[in-house]
Every structure is written in structure tokens, then in C-alpha cells.
Design goal:
Elements lengths: L5 H4 L24 E7 L18 H9 L1 E7 L5 H10 L27 H7 L3 E7 L27 E5 L11 E2 L2 E2 L9 E3 L29 E2 L2 E2 L3 E3 L11 H15 L5 E6 L20 H23 L6 E7 L42 E4 L7 E8 L3 H8 L16 H4 L9 E5 L5 E5 L2 E4 L7 E2 L4 E2 L7 E4 L15 H15 L4
Amino acid sequence: MKPPTPILFATCVLAMTLPACHPARLDSPPDRPNILLIYADDLGYGDVGGYGAASIETPRIDRLAREGLRFEQAYTSSATCTPSRYSLLTGEYAWRHEGTGIARGDAPLIIPLGRKTLPSVLRDAGYRTAVIGKWHLGLGGDEGPDWNGELRPGPLEIGFDEAFLIPATGDRVPTVFVEDHRVVGLDPMDPIEVSFDAPIGDEPTGRDHPELLAMRPSHGHDQTIVNGISRIGTMRGGRAARWVDEDIADVLTARAVSFIERERIEPFFLYYSTHDIHVPRVPHARFAGRSGLGPRGDVILQLDWAVGELIDALERSGLTDNTLVLFTSDNGPVLDDGYMDQAVELQDGHEPSGPFRGGKYSAFEAGTRVPFIVRWPGRVPSGISGALVSQVDLMASLAALTGRPMGQDGTSDGRDHSAALLGLDAEGREAVVEHNAAGTLSLRTRDWKYIEPSQASPYNRYTDIELGNDLAPQLYDVLQDPGERTNVAADHPEIVDAMASRLEALRNRHE
């Protein structure tokens, strides 16, 4: 597929509402809007201008923030990608299920067949549903994906009408696109083989042939080389189907724009899951070197461009006023996540985590507190919201907003907080649950943050990120100490006990 030009365009902690909280309700559901959910990857709270970034410009994302509602206390469900995506699409905490950690590139489909999902609920409400971009929730049955045959079950079996995917991540093999049930552009005479256990094939690896690399790994990421970048896992075959890293954003955005322009009559739900700003960070030449912050900054500019392309497509199609746009991220930021791309050296004062502690993988706030913007002209007021909101509620909230309230069946952790999304409820959740890469759970209320004791390592020596794990309980006054610098657990044992008990009850579905 030839990547489009700008002229052709003119695009790895969990949260829940507790039953004690009763948010404001809509008197009647509004007309069904189109829904565009833009899900960035590894984008931190402080990575965009609307949330305080001063060293990089993100005018298109900032425009959404100006025209819509910018949430200051919004949470993803986990500090890593696969569990966040699982919770986003199912309304259930990923830590309740085995196999929902950071998925391998050859993982089978993680979402159980037959359960309600965000796309299936919206499809039942009359929406055309599509996922375009990073998937990372597995493909195929228990035996895993058949890269040379039909990749089912997958997105189409859990509620999407169409799919165009990066099957896992950009740093994992196979480096191919998948459309619906098939690898795009695969030559049957050059079948794909993939392994994450033992090496296969004779293609050079970054470990053995670093002289072939255009970007060297800093840790791991040293197996099969594709486009001068070594990946996680080994593969052979599929040469005609392999993507060009510099073109990924163009290809995905072109597909998203095409979907918007095609689906202008009946309501649609588009889950546009970007690759940016995940590693490997390989910006198109249009953005390379423009940010002054190295490739990480450049792909933030590329992400901002993609957002603008989708918003422009809505305007050209006359869909602006009838489209609910949500923009957020799957987890917090990370600088060195496996490649020597100078993200640390060229940081130049930029603070991806904003005022918060930690980042991707962490139990501290920066692991799960992310940008979250909602725009629906004429329905959602512009401004700032302090409501406590979580991505695990999106399925229930969007179902209610489209006139299909789900109720509670005991298997969902999400609740209807459509009123908060529409700016009608300034409080939102009573509490959110956060989950880090080690499995440590935290409970955030409107005043306090409790992190349960953990024997896991407190520090990630590869990413230079504090993970927030400690043998002792931690308690932070998040209103007075948003950076979580002073553990006040010893001063408030009664609050520690109450929050620990509440978290345990929630863990066991007793609350």
C-alpha cells in the first residue's frame, strides 16, 4: 500500500466505580452520535500542550482540549498496554483473568468469546464498528495465530465489523498488517514463521549482527532485524507483507480517514489505536528531527498530525457536530523502553509524567493517570473537569449514552458514568483502582491514594522508572501531595486499614 501524502489527506492498573456512588443521570438519552475513540500508546500526562507540555507543540490535540472537556483525573485501567486494552473493551479488570499480562506476539485471543464488549454493545445498538491500529490482545484459538491462513477468532468475533491491525506491537514480530482475518499482502510462496521461544530461520538478529542496525537496542529487542531494527522474537518469511516503520502512521491514518468518509450515513464506532508513541519510534521523514527532542518527540508530532487528519475528515464529511470524540492513552510514559533513540539524552527539560511520580509499569500516578479529552460540540461543554473517571467504564457509559443501558450482571467492573463524560457530573467515581506491571493494586479516592504492600522490585533497572512496590503499605494525600512524595501511612493507620479492607472487598467482588 502506498502511503498517503499530507496533500491527499488535505490521519501495558484498573479502575472501577463503587456501588456506593450514584452519579447524576441523563433525563433521556441523546441522539446516537458517531463515536471516535483515539487511543494513543505510552503517551504521558505531560506529553501534550493541553496538559502542560511547554517543550513540544501539539496544536491539534490542544484544539480538542479547547473545544471539549479536559479531564484532570482520568485513569487507564493498568500501567501497561494489554491489560488496559482488555479492560477498555470488556469493562472488566484484566487482573481477574490469567493471561492478560503484556501479550506475546503469538498469543491467542485473550478476550473470551461470547462476552459483551464495547464494540458488540454498540453494534447491537446499530453502529458500524471498526478497529484500526494496534491490537495486542491476541489472535486465533488456543493454538495461537495461523499467520498463513485465517486469523480467527479475533476482533470480528468479539464485536467489530472490520479490522486493520498491527497484531501486537511494533517491536514484536511478525511485522505485518492484518486486515480482518488475513495478513495483508502475504505471498503464499513465502509463508510466515514466528517464534518467541527458540530461534528460527537464518535471518540476521540484532544480537549477532549489530552492524546491520539503524537503531540499536538498549535492552532486549535484539532478535530478527526488520528495516534495520531488531525486534522481540524471531521470524522468517512474509517479506512482501512486512511494513515500513516510517509509513505506519500514514497507512493507519489513511484507513481511518477512509472509514470516516465512507460511513457517514449510519452511526459508526471507530476505535483508532495508534502505534505512536510506542517503540520503536521511527517517524516519517516529514517529522524526523522537527521536535528537537529526538525520535520520541518527533512521533508525538506525528501523533498530533494523525489526530488532526481524523478531525479534518469529520469536518469534510459534515460529521463534527454529531461525533463524540474521545482522546486518551493506554498507560503512562516511558523514555528508554528498549532502544537507543536518545529519548533520555534529548529530553531537554520535557516532563512526560507532568507533576506525577512514576511512569509506564508503575503503581504511582504517572503509570495510570493519563490525558483524557471528550469533545461533542453542542452536547459536551468546553472546559476542565475534575471528575474522577476511568476507562473501564467506557463500555457501560457509551452503552447508556446511545440508549442501550446495560445494567449490572455481576461480571462487569464498569459503571455508567456518561453524565461525567458529558460534563453533567463534576464528581464521577467515588474511587478508582490502579494496577501496575507487577500486579500491585492501588485504590485512589478523591482525597487519598493507597498502594498495597508488595514484594516485587521497587525499581525497573531497564526503564529507570520507580514501580511503586514496597513491603509496607503506602498512603498519600493526593490533593496536597499529587507527586506522592510523602508516605503518610504511619500517621493515618485508620485510613490505611479502611482502604485496604475496601480494596480487598473489591478484589473479591464483595463491594
